[in-house]
User: Which sequence fits this backbone?
């Protein structure tokens, strides 16, 4: 890796999950920012734009749908790839996420951290 | 004995009969109900009041008229007290009133009643003038007390009704508004024509109160029975019956010979008897129809509640599945990291058992997914994307994926080539894949020898898919239950404990949504089984 560390922002309110992903992505050489609610996610993304955002949907204060809307409206953040990463698995929810401008809709329980890392790497390379 | 039957008396007779009919109809509906009992007492008092005015007006003898005048004033005293107790009770089954009130409230009534009937207290005499309404000579003091009692009790009753009205809601309020309006019209007319005008010495209209009190009776009966007796069919039947009664009654009264009187009297009895039967049957018919309407409305409401309940259940399952996935994500993620030796190397046993925990976790996730699918299909939320599908190549693709599983158990898995090319079916490829996968997976799971053979053939406008094995089979009595929720064959439960019994239920729902059928055949335990489904040709 010649260039500086890639930055990932993980918006996740469940501590056991955020800790696990943080651990895994740091080991893989990422600089990990963690937002424990939607409000924080929007603020961090604006202040320090990451290379990619992993966005949970059911979060306190501002939910993932609203966060996605705000990110896509803001010039500073609208080009950051967003992967929705949620355990809401209904097709209507998946459609909604893609319509709102998410790059991909991932179901948490389907993926191990390793599989998630693959998806993220692929997306960043594009 | 001359008896004067004029138009007014005829009207009064009609009103009297109508009054009694309504009274009996209400009373007989529920004899134990106190509201109905008080109403019945009210009706009887009014009937007595009407009968006495008829005799008072009809007779010509001074002494007789005087007697009927006293009966007239006596009977009228029952009306306010009956109305008061009715209003206190309405619409309850029981009159809930303290004992002292029950004793004290009727005291003024008793006093006035005694004064009315004793000679030379309230009524001193009568003045008969041909062609005019008979006049009554009152004791002014007692007459004033009499009026005070009547007006006071009515006023009191309206205060009670008014209070009830103000705190009432819905149908009850409507009932009360009927009672208040109807009775108020009657009492207003009655008080003017039968109390105030005679007080001023005017007796011209002293029959009008009796005639118009029918408004009160109808209003109260309507309120008690809600809207039943206002049915046009019932009213028409009643009017017709009454007309016949009146005609026969007039014929009886005016009969020229004794034989005719006897004959007409029998005729009158007959017409009353059959008239009552007729009215009752019409009332019954109308009531039954209304009952049906009510039941229909209740059924609709119950259906709606069920639907909401079902929706709530699906919603609950959806949320529950989300909540269950979250800890499982963590379990699965951390186990996978252990297996990747993220925190250092594992020995072979550790690897093996962590792998097993991981598999169990995956199985749990699958079960949650199945549950959610079922809740969605039941809520009608699953959308089917029907396209022409080549069932044969679909089956081949799925069996290729499951071949390893079969080989592990040393079982064969074969898709028979059909003799001719089969037409495509109209199906949702993803959902049908799941069904075939499920059936094939079951077939392998529950077989220990031989293997599974998949066969496709055309039958009319359908393609039949079937998979046959030489496995554990299914006892006949369990065949029909296989496709219901949470049902698994008894033997399947003994052998494989991890199934939730949802797979075949789900398959059944999917095939039904396609307009096909799914069924199972087996010759019995350990004689293998055959699962088939049909799909319509595209």
Assistant:
């Amino acid at each position: 890796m010649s260039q500086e560390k890639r930055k990932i922002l993980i918006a996740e309110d469940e501590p056991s999950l955020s800790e696990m992903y943080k651990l895994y992505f740091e080991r893989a050489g990422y600089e990990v920012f963690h937002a424990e609610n939607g409000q924080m996610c929007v603020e961090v993304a604006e202040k320090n734009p990451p290379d990619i955002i992993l966005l949970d949907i059911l979060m306190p204060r501002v939910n993932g749908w609203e966060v996605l809307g705000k990110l896509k409206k803001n010039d500073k953040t609208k080009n950051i790839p967003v992967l929705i990463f949620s355990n809401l698995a209904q097709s209507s929810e998946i459609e909604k996420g893609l319509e709102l401008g998410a790059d991909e809709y991932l179901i948490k329980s389907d993926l191990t951290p390793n599989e998630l890392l693959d998806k993220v790497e692929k997306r960043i390379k594009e | 004995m001359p008896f004067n039957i004029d138009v007014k008396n005829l009207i009064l007779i009609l009103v009297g009969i109508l009054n009694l009919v309504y009274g009996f109809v209400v009373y007989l509906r529920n004899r134990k109900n106190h509201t109905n009992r008080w109403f019945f007492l009210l009706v009887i008092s009014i009937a007595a009041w009407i009968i006495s005015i008829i005799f008072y007006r009809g007779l010509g003898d001074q002494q007789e008229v005087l007697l009927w005048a006293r009966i007239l004033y006596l009977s009228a005293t029952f009306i306010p007290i009956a109305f008061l107790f009715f209003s206190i009770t309405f619409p309850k089954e029981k009159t809930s009133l303290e004992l002292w009130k029950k004793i004290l409230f009727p005291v003024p009534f008793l006093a006035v009643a005694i004064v009315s009937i004793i000679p030379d207290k309230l009524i001193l005499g009568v003045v008969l003038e041909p062609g005019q309404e008979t006049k009554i000579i009152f004791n002014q003091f007692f007459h004033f007390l009499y009026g005070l009692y009547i007006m006071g009790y009515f006023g009191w009753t309206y205060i009670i009704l008014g209070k009830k009205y103000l705190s009432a809601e819905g149908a009850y309020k409507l009932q009360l508004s009927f009672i208040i309006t109807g009775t108020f019209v009657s009492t207003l007319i009655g008080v003017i024509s039968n109390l105030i005008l005679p007080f001023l010495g005017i007796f011209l209209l002293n029959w009008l109160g009796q005639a118009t009190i029918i408004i009160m009776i109808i209003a109260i009966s309507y309120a008690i029975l809600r809207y039943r007796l206002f049915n046009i069919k019932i009213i028409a039947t009643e009017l017709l019956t009454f007309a016949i009664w009146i005609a026969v009654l007039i014929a009886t009264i005016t009969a020229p010979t004794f034989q005719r009187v006897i004959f007409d009297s029998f005729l009158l009895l007959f017409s009353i008897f059959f008239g009552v039967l007729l009215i009752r049957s019409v009332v019954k018919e109308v009531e039954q129809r209304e009952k049906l309407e009510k039941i229909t409305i209740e059924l609709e409401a119950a259906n709606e509640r069920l639907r909401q309940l079902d929706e709530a259940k699906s919603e609950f399952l959806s949320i529950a599945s989300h909540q269950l996935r979250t800890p499982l994500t963590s379990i699965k993620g951390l186990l996978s990291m252990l297996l990747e030796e993220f925190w250092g190397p594992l020995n072979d046993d550790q690897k093996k058992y962590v792998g097993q925990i991981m598999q169990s976790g995956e199985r749990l996730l699958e079960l949650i997914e199945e549950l959610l699918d079922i809740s969605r299909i039941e809520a009608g939320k699953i959308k089917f994307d029907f396209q022409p599908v080549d069932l044969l190549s679909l089956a081949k693709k799925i069996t290729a994926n499951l071949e390893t599983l079969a080989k592990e158990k040393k079982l064969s898995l074969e898709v028979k080539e059909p003799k001719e090319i089969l037409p495509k079916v109209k199906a949702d490829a993803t959902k049908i894949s799941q069904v075939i996968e499920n059936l094939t997976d079951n077939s392998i799971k529950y077989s220990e020898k031989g293997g599974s053979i998949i066969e496709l053939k055309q039958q009319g406008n359908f393609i039949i898919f079937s998979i046959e094995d030489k496995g554990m089979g299914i006892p006949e009595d369990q065949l029909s239950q296989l496709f219901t929720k949470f049902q698994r064959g008894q033997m399947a439960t003994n052998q494989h404990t991890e199934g939730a019994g949802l797979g075949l239920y789900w398959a059944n729902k999917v095939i039904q949504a396609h307009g096909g059928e799914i069924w199972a055949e087996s010759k019995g335990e350990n004689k293998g089984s055959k699962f088939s489904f049909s799909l319509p040709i595209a």
Observations:
- The mean pLDDT of chain A is 90.
- The helical segments of chain A are 15-27, 38-47, 64-73, 91-99, 113-125.
